[in-house]
Design goal:
Helix content: 40-55%
Shape: globular
Radius of gyration: 26 Å
CATH architecture of the largest domain: 3-Layer(aba) Sandwich
Strand order of the largest sheet: 2-1-3-8-7-6
Strand content: 15-25%
Number of domains: 3
Distance between the termini: 49 Å
Number of strands: 17
Length: 410
């Protein structure tokens, strides 16, 4: 099954919002076994929407559209879909009942604008949206499917797995795309590609290897349109050898979440050069409040001293970017919050501030836990964004290792 994704909205083209819907939809379609062949963003213009539908409908079995389903005049997707399928909008009593149930606690909010959400193209199958007023719509024509979903990300993220994917799985039997993910840490993409050159040459024509670089790691995706990947997966493990890697889709923050939930432990952080990014990554995982107690962004030496208890003498003797300070930051975060574990970072993110002894990219990372505190020195990149990303990912992965080691020694 081949799929295409269309996102609608001037705000996307203007760069005012990030298009997270396309990424989410493509990822879920891949997991289903479908192949996404095109992604396209268009503005709130009927002609652009109709052209995008015509183009993608000709090359894909399924077209998933998001955006433009609100109750205001600039939301024109329903009208464009009605025109594309040569039908008209009509009032749908079932959808109106859904709206009444949605507004049961505050019926006065079901105003004239919201009532228009019950007007849909005649030939669509309404998909109930329990997270908002705009329902999804399912169209079929000539064995192909068009699905229209709201542009609000959490509504799309509800409707796609609940209403769309089960129907696609039932309708299409050629969901034969398979893939396997590896994440390799602390090696540049170019160096990794050189290491895997012979492996890539040995791959059969129907198997592809893709490199997906991010700060601190490179994700490798093996994909096959037919058959299985067992042999390629086994050979890639061998080719990676002693490199630090893991398999599967989990990100470092998700691995931390899995370990802490499993053991019923908690974590905190103390950050200088990463500026709160580690706390941000941890809290992007739903349910993080069960194990994340808090963090201290100790950018200044005063906060390191007064909040985390770093010794003035050590700051003066070794400097803020040092093993002694990193150790005390982690210990201080654990003490202040009462967490079982704490991770700390202090370094030179750049682009300024480096010295011959401590160049840009120098970062000390420390992890404190029930069995003690450790610190390691890293030299990452000359780019600020990469240093923050690499330090954050490295800190979380080291935290996972420490937690795993502690659990094995219990």
């Amino acid at each position: 099954m081949k799929a295409a994704i269309i996102t609608i909205g001037d705000e996307i083209l203007l760069g005012q919002i990030l298009d997270t819907n396309s990424r989410f939809i493509a990822r879920e379609l891949t997991r289903l076994g479908a192949e996404t062949v095109e992604m396209r963003s268009v503005g709130d213009e009927r002609s652009e929407i109709l052209q995008a539908l015509a183009d993608t409908f000709g090359k894909a079995d399924v077209v998933i559209v998001t955006g433009g389903l609100g109750p205001t005049k600039d939301d024109i997707t329903k009208g464009a879909l009605a025109e594309f399928f040569h039908t008209s909008l009509e009032f749908n009593p079932q959808v109106y009942r859904w709206l009444e149930e949605l507004f049961a606690a505050n019926p006065e909010r079901l105003n004239a604008y919201n009532k228009t959400q019950a007007e849909l193209p005649k030939n669509c199958l309404p998909l109930r949206n329990r997270k908002g007023t705009a329902c999804g719509m399912w169209f079929e024509q000539g064995g192909k499917v068009v699905v229209s979903l709201p542009g609000v990300p959490f509504e799309t993220e509800y409707l796609l797995p609940e209403e769309v994917l089960p129907r696609l799985k039932e309708k299409f039997t050629d969901l034969n795309l398979s893939y396997h993910l590896f994440t390799v840490f602390n090696i540049p993409e170019a160096e990794l590609a050189m290491r895997l050159a012979d492996f890539e040459k040995s791959l059969p024509p129907d198997v592809k290897l893709a490199y997906l670089p991010s700060p601190g790691h490179v994700r490798l995706r093996l994909t096959a349109r037919q058959g299985n990947l067992d042999t390629a997966v086994r050979d890639l493990r061998t080719a990676l050898g002693s490199l630090h890697f893991h398999e599967g889709e989990q990100t470092p923050d998700e691995k931390v979440a899995q370990q802490l939930r499993k053991l019923g432990k908690t974590v905190a952080c103390a950050e200088s050069c990463t500026g709160g990014n580690i706390a941000h990554l941890i809290t992007t995982v739903p349910g993080a409040s069960a194990y994340f107690l808090g963090g201290v962004v100790s950018y200044s030496n005063e906060v390191k001293k007064n909040v985390l208890g770093v010794k003035v003498a050590d700051l003066e003797k070794y400097g803020a970017v040092s093993e002694a300070v990193a150790l005390q930051m982690a210990q201080g975060a654990r003490r202040v919050t009462g967490a079982d574990y704490a991770v700390a970072t202090t370094g030179v993110a750049g682009p300024d501030g480096g010295t011959p002894e401590k160049p840009v990219g120098t970062v000390w990372i420390a992890v404190a836990g029930p069995k003690g505190t450790q610190a390691k020195k890293f030299l990452f990149s000359h780019t600020r964004e990469r240093n923050i990303g690499k330090a954050s990912a490295t800190a979380l992965l080291w935290l996972v290792e420490v937690i795993q080691q502690d659990s094995l020694s219990i």
